[in-house]
Amino acid sequence: MSGVALDLLLQALPVAFIMFVVLNFGGILTWVERKQSAIMQDRIGANRASIFGFRVFGLLHPLADAIKMLTKEDFIPARADRLMFKLAPFASVFFALAAFASIPFGDTLRIWGREIQLQAVTLNVGILYVLAMLSMGVYGLMMAGWASANNYALLGGQRAAALMISAEVAIGASIMGVVMVYGSLNMQDIARAQGQPLLPQFFGDWIPAWGILTQPLAFVLFVTAGIAATKRIPFDMPEGESEIIGYFVEYSGMKFGMFAMADFLETVVIAGMVTALFLGGWQAPYLETSGFTFPWGAALPLPHLVVVLLQVGAFLTKVTVVIWFLMLIRWTLPRFRYDQAMRLGWLGLFPLSVLNIVITGLVLLALGKA
Amino acid sequence: MASPYQRTNVPMDPRHSSRLSILQRFYVVEVLVGLVLTARHFFVNMGKHTLRALGVKSAHGAVTIQYPEERRPYATRLRSLHRLVRREDGSPRCVACMMCETVCPAHCIYIVASEHPNPEIEKVPARFDIDLGKCVFCGYCVEACPEDAIRMDTGILEFSSYSRGGMIYTKEMLLALEPARADGTPSSPVPIPPDRVPS
């Protein structure tokens, strides 16, 4: 194989990995949602779908769902804008998938004399890219709402836009604190910086400088606004199952399934961002490029490949835990009313994130880092 | 300040008060309280599910009764699908006195009487149909019967059909049924109406 072809293949590797992981996460989340909610509510959950009598804990239900959705009638309303109507679910899924591209899932992998960044796209403005993709996601919803020629769908699309704007302001402002602390917009740099010890003059090498410790307020604000960006309960205004059905009211079959899929993919993206910005990304505690180096002096050297695998494993574990937490919130809290969500976004989250920026600036000044 | 909704002088349960404390207004604390509650349910149930998967059969992580395979025990006086009681020779104990047909508030019983070969017995039903699509399961037919010839103790609750005609159960079907077992589970198979017999 020529060098160029190998280079291309190695470049495609992280992209393929991300597509594989994120799409599978999205598919399995339909199962997680059913099972986790059931276990939280003392139920068993969907367990009837079987192949030759094998039920495997209801894991075949996503498969059965896919078959059901693919075989359903694909209905388009007579007065709908046909092109936009068909395009909307694809836009929704595409931007949710694309948002994951600049989230790093491991440190640099050195193999066959080459260095591969474990990140689909190495961007110096990675955070801005993710923010842009997240907000582009709302275009799919607005297209769906407008093209359906249905007032309720239009209302849902408008609500989606309003919710996204109020959530996005808080997301952007709360991330600013993280950017100030780690001094970079590159998500790989931020993940690396979170492996440094936190305040070594007080704690030595014991505590890594994860974002949740340096920016606790920003963490709460970001998670709240992030849940709003996923458009799931408690922030399900665009959908509003109990009142307007929302932007996908006219959709059926797999197009409807793609909207549901986009919601789950956005959950994965938010979980990935929370992990990368606040939970140390792919950092495992005390794991450095040469192996474990414990603060009490012990060291456990590991080969490079094992270290990289541990890092990727740490990232996926953290993402899984965050998704579990997001699901816990989704199945615990009642939904907000539309005006309550707006008030929370503009009068709660946004001023608090500005306050967080001010405090962060003062603390950085006091520590002499600014 | 009393709540505007409070009418009596009885102090209100503070949990039901319309006034929220500062801590409750802050919302984050209350959210965390709720999350701890649901998370505790999650972990406790998850632990029980794991124990059960490891072979501890007394551990139940859910209150679910997996219906077709598991049933909750029925009450002994449950009124279920009717059956016609048989004599020793297998003929119906029913003497076609029309008491049940008369008392039935839903008019779902249809009897055609005929002569019994035994001169000791007045009559015997030639037809005894119950339209279960109309039956209200009041049990008056059982109470009205002077011969104890009809009972509602089969324990069978699942009878369905794709047509109204399929809900009409004939004398032969009702005669073939047996009473429920001591634990309330049906001992006869559910009779399959003619329109549900697989072709």
Strands, helices and their partners?
The complex is a heterodimer of chains A (370) and B (199).
Chain A: H1 3-40, H2 61-71, H3 82-98, E1 109-111, E2 114-116, H4 126-147, H5 151-182, H6 187-193, H7 200-203, H8 211-214, H9 216-230, H10 253-278, E3 287-288, E4 291-293, E5 299-301, H11 304-330, H12 338-367
Antiparallel strand pairs in A: 1-2, 3-4, 4-5
Chain B: H1 22-26, H2 28-53, E1 83-84, H3 99-103, E2 109-115, E3 123-131, H4 140-144, E4 150-151, E5 168-169, H5 171-175
Antiparallel strand pairs in B: 1-4, 2-3, 3-5
Can you describe what's shown?
With 370 residues, chain A is mainly alpha-helical. Chain A has one domain (3-367). Chain A has twelve helices and five strands. The longest helix of chain A is centred in the N-terminal third of the chain and has 38 residues, at 3-40. By secondary structure, chain B is α+β, with helices and mostly antiparallel strands. Chain B has two domains: 20-64, no CATH class; 83-193, 2-Layer Sandwich (Alpha-Beta Plaits), CATH 3.30.70. Chain B is built from five helices and five strands, in the order ααβαββαββα. In chain B, the strands form two sheets. A three-stranded antiparallel β-sheet of chain B has the order 2-3-5. Chain B has a two-stranded antiparallel ribbon with strand order 1-4. Chain B starts with 21 loop residues before the first helix and ends in a 24-residue tail after the last helix. The mean pLDDT of chain B is 85. The interface between A and B is medium-sized, with 14 and 17 residues.
